Amino acid sequence: MPSTSLPSNLKIGFLGAGQLARMSALQAFRFGIQVAVFSDRPENEPVQFMTPFSTSGSFESVDDMVAFAKDCDVITLENEFISSDILKQVQEKSGTPIYPSPESFALIENKLIEKQTFEAAGIPVTPYKLIDGESDLKTFGDEYGWPYLLKSSKGGYDGYGNETVRDLKSAKKAFEKLGGNDGRDIVAEAFVDFTKELAVQVARNESGTVVYPCCETVQKNHICVAVLSPAPVQEKYQKQAQELAVKATEAINGKGIFAFEFFLTKDGKLLLNESAPRPHNSGHYTIEGTVASQFENHVRAVLGLPLGSTELNKPAVAMINLLGTHKRPAKPDNIQEGLASENGHLHVYGKIESKPGRKMAHYTLLGENLEETYKNALHVTRNIEI
Amino acid sequence: MPSTSLPSNLKIGFLGAGQLARMSALQAFRFGIQVAVFSDRPENEPVQFMTPFSTSGSFESVDDMVAFAKDCDVITLENEFISSDILKQVQEKSGTPIYPSPESFALIENKLIEKQTFEAAGIPVTPYKLIDGESDLKTFGDEYGWPYLLKSSKGGYDGYGNETVRDLKSAKKAFEKLGGNDGRDIVAEAFVDFTKELAVQVARNESGTVVYPCCETVQKNHICVAVLSPAPVQEKYQKQAQELAVKATEAINGKGIFAFEFFLTKDGKLLLNESAPRPHNSGHYTIEGTVASQFENHVRAVLGLPLGSTELNKPAVAMINLLGTHKRPAKPDNIQEGLASENGHLHVYGKIESKPGRKMAHYTLLGENLEETYKNALHVTRNIEI
């Protein structure tokens, strides 16, 4: 049964204190809910400035997290750094439910199991193989072509834990770098010749499932630099990506907010590339871009509340990631054009230190026409330095 | 010069920890700014759950507030309970600027000076008179008609500090109750035979002035129960109310967010009734109803940033105040219809204790047609108990 009530002393606990937890916490506050945060870093994390209920500890210590969880009504996450096994113990020993559940996490925390799970559900994934020794490195390249990708089966994030390998020599080197010689599972993935990278967010709980529009993620050096919604691709691809994303959420029996990234190949196929059991950078545009944001539906989903509408508020939305430009105390400069722009929305994450490439802020612009909106968003943010 | 930068360790200090400071704080967080709060109550105030930087003290103690202000980059307020004289001392002794300025406060904290200030700026106000002894009570009634209103010149809020007097006997009683015999200035105000109560919010700083749409406030027993925007009155009245609101903000040289309440009389005159140098209940609808909310422009204004657009996001917005229905720990019940309604937005203030009539939460619905949107908003919130 979905919940119908919101007691004001309800406390939601976040494992992780970065910008994703921060933006979800802002939505929890809108519902009058209290927020507690467990960080694996001692201080100055974005959410730590937003609550008196802040704890530090290790993501590998069940005891640390049990003590935290006992003081919360529900626990949720903003990353994939904690193993499902540890989460399961935290849930059992604290008596506090964790959503998405440790069982859902177990199906996607390991890239190999993730791919097998989604394949079994009939969702096309990029061609892959578990590398069982050096000879596989050559065989995979011969079969699917060079270059290809090597990925650590655990802990990948924004290109970390991924290596593009161009020949056997670089493959061996990457295999070692990723921990393959230390017993870590390494998965080879064929390089997909895609025309677009697409993403879809899905929220799901006992009240039902809602799916966000299919958006395009624009990447530079494996880092998302912009998101456009709806994705400038034929409607049939948008719809298909949404259907696959819902199917994938169901395949892991997900309760929470989930994001799925797809490749649209040159021959018009959609392949699931990555999944995330949490709010995702590809969905930041939903804060103003849709009626209920991914963060609002994150909070609604884990609390068992009815989910909110994912309809776009305007025909076109462009989100620009504002990455650190300097190594210095964070100081978003030259923001005046962005702030003054009609229908533009600036979000700054409250990180104290900036460094080149670090995700520090984002800017969302709503408009009538996608191409023009994207152009304008790039224009009014072009001088921002952080 | 308007500011063009948003350093992440910037700290905004709120004097007052209720729902108005809370909703402004949420916008400060969106900009990556830290929030500190000074409350005259010891614990469990809405903002106290949203920051590690929480202090309690007296609104009458300069020292208490100086210690607080020294740790902040700018101070702002959510109420009119602190005298301008004390604010001025806090500003001077701490070196931290307060916006709106103590000078602006000084012009509106006393109802008599407020009316004189606005009258001098050419803004029509309700007929009034400072009561100098009992004989004035009779003279005012004879001149402007019974019943009329007696108001304490300081500290009025949601009908507190106001008395409707129907005859000389009740006038004497009210005069005494409001502190007239103890030397407090009591102002008589003619009862205005109005057709609508309207409100307009204005944000202003060194970057310019923006004015929100003219909305209607629906009152029951001097408490606002609903807000409709744009107000269902002729466009000429909307425009005139906006012009008067801007003029009033200029008359007090306001830097911050301001709200002005007007009576629209039966013979088509607009009279300024109340002003507030802070976010106001009449502007809660702007969170989703306009591009930049009154809370966002509150934060922008006091930081000297360019102000955001006040355009409506949809043609019609209805906001329903959700008042406490029981004396009990706060627990908004039966919220499912409101949450499930397309374009509906629930805000809960995080107060721990509810009591009948206390402002606990609000609900905003966006739509195409005002009458229908208001009807729907009332319908989906009709069963909510708090």
Written overview of the protein:
Two copies of one chain form a homodimer. In chain A, a hairpin with a 2-residue loop joins strand 11 (215-220) and strand 12. Chain A is globular and about 60 Å long. Chain A is 30% helix and 28% strand. In chain A, the strands form four sheets. In chain A, strands 9, 10, 11, 12, 13, 14, 15, 17 and 19 form a nine-stranded antiparallel beta sheet that branches. A four-stranded parallel beta sheet of chain A has the order 3-2-1-4. Chain A is built from twelve helices and 19 strands. The first copy, chain A, has three domains: 11-98, Rossmann fold (3-Layer(aba) Sandwich); 127-190, Dna Ligase, domain 1 (2-Layer Sandwich); 194-381, ATP-grasp fold, B domain (D-amino Acid Aminotransferase, Chain A, domain 1), CATH 3.30.470.20. With 386 residues, chain A is an alpha+beta fold. Chains A and B meet through helix 1, helix 11 and strand 17 of A and helix 1, helix 11 and strand 17 of B.
